[in-house]
């Protein structure tokens, strides 16, 4: 049996007592201190055992006692046969996915140790990061000012972040685990997408998790209404082509419906133009593009009303006498089918012509209001029609009859003229009588002169 704290010596120790020996024989025996043991338990943040952590054991003077100690699958390292004293575990290799902690871990083997000395050490998991990139769903353009909450998968708030000029959010220092981003505010002009964006930080992950998420831009609507220029009636079946403002083709065969409307939906913000490719029969094709813009963030539908004009026709009236000679200065009024006066004072020119342009298809009338001098007025309506799609000028020939004048001095004619034009005919007989009297006197003088000359000549002969 040894003294407590020392090892029992093993074996026999011989000594000799000599004959007659008076002095005491002394022998020296050395008992070693009883050694102890130490145990290190390596655990993770949630108390799980961590294997493959590597340590060195050093004494209080810093001298290495044992090196390359590695935790087993239970996260344990045991070192035996240690003399009483102070020792330190120094981590030289961290378990996978955990941070290395080189802080020495003190452990003491006491004198006459009865139980193993145990220490525990926790390793924190290595953190990593996540990078979220926000882009336009169609163009891939990066989007600034999208606001997100970083949450646990149970929806617990962790932090709030906003995409930068590069359209990115970078979050560092995330422990391994499962997370989610939830968009709380979309970039201006884009639709909010509140569906959680799930991601994980894996154990031992050394690079940031990359996430790309897109937003659909808020699209706008545009409505065109097509009407008749003159009466405002809706025009169905007018065909258009949609282009970008630079003329790039987008879509063809767009046609106004029964209400004369063409509705374009889901247009991205930008500048556009509509080109009319087919007008209704008899209508003029609209010249030039119809430009419009869809604004970013536009919520209300934009609307425009465009009119088409029926192709206009022309008419010429030719005024002639019965001999086919053209007559100037005949005056006409133009009426529509309802008898409404459209133009008055239309006068034939030196070529006997009146030309009227820009007439909408329909029925019209010319009414003569004043005949050329010396011709009878004929106010019988002259009907004509401007046809739909008429291209050539419509020509109308109108004949006036002369006013018949009776020979001068005729009593009957004088009476007739007097009935039709009393004022003029009152002066006409006086004028005829005066002429007759002058002629009679003149003839008498001439006859008398002739007789006198004859008598005078006969006298000379005798």
TrEMBL record:
Chief place where the protein resides: secreted
This protein's membrane topology, according to the annotation, is:
Peptidoglycan-anchor
A UniProt-annotated Pfam family: Gram_pos_anchor
The residues that cross the membrane are 435-455
Indicate yes or no for the key word Membrane. yes
Which stretches of sequence are listed as region Disordered? 405-429
Question: Which InterPro entries has this protein been placed in?
Answer: Ig-like_fold (IPR013783), LPXTG_anchor (IPR019931), SpaA_PFL_dom_1 (IPR041033)
Cellular localisation: Secreted, Cell wall
The Gram-positive cocci surface proteins LPxTG domain covers which part of the protein?
422-461
Q: Please list the residue ranges annotated as the SpaA-like prealbumin fold domain.
A: 37-123, 130-210, 220-301, 313-399
Tell me which PANTHER family the record gives.
COLOSSIN-B-RELATED (PTHR36108)
Which protein family is named in the record? Belongs to the serine-aspartate repeat-containing protein (SDr) family.
What is this protein identified as?
A: LPXTG-motif cell wall anchor domain-containing protein
Q: Which source organism?
A: Amphibacillus marinus
């Amino acid at each position: 049996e040894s003294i407590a704290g020392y090892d029992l010596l093993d074996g026999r120790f011989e000594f000799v007592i000599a004959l007659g020996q008076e002095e005491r024989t002394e022998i020296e025996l050395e008992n070693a201190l009883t050694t102890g043991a130490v145990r290190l338990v390596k655990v993770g943040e949630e108390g799980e055992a961590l294997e493959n952590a590597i340590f060195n054991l050093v004494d209080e003077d810093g001298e290495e006692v044992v090196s390359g100690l590695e935790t087993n699958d239970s996260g344990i390292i045991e070192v035996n046969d240690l003399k009483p004293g102070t020792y330190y575990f120094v981590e030289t290799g961290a378990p996978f996915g955990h941070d290395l902690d080189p802080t020495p871990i003190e452990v003491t083997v006491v004198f006459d140790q009865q139980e193993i000395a145990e220490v525990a050490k926790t390793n924190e998991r290595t953190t990593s990061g996540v990078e979220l990139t926000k882009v336009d769903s169609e163009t891939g353009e990066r989007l600034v000012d999208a606001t997100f909450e970083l949450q646990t998968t149970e929806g617990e708030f962790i932090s709030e972040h906003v995409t930068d000029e590069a359209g990115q959010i970078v979050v560092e220092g995330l422990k391994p685990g499962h997370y989610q981003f939830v968009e709380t505010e979309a970039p201006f002009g884009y639709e909010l997408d509140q569906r959680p964006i799930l991601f994980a930080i894996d154990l031992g992950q050394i690079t940031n998790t990359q996430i790309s998420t897109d937003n659909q831009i808020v699209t706008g609507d545009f409505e065109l209404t097509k009407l008749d220029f003159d009466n405002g009636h809706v025009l169905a079946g007018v065909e258009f082509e949609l282009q970008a403002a630079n003329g790039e083709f987008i879509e063809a065969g767009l046609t106004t419906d029964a209400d004369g409307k063409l509705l374009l939906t889901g247009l991205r913000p930008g500048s556009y133009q509509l080109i009319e490719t087919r007008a209704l029969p008899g209508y003029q094709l609209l010249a030039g593009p119809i430009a419009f813009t869809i604004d970013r963030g536009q919520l209300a539908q934009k609307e425009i009303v465009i009119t088409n004009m029926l192709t206009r026709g022309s008419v010429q009236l030719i005024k002639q006498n019965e001999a086919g000679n053209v007559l100037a200065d005949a005056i006409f009024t133009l009426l529509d089918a309802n008898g409404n006066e459209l133009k008055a004072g239309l006068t034939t020119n030196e070529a006997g012509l009146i030309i009227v342009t820009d007439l909408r298809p329909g029925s019209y009338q010319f009414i003569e209001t004043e005949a050329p001098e010396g011709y009878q007025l004929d106010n019988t309506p002259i009907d004509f029609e401007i046809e739909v799609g008429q291209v050539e000028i419509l020509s109308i020939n109108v004949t006036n009859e002369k006013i018949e004048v009776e020979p001068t001095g005729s009593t009957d004619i004088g009476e007739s003229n007097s009935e039709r034009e009393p004022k003029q005919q009152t002066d006409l007989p006086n004028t005829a009588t005066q002429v007759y009297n002058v002629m009679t006197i003149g003839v008498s003088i001439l006859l008398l002169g002739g007789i006198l000359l004859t008598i005078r000549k006969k006298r000379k002969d005798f």
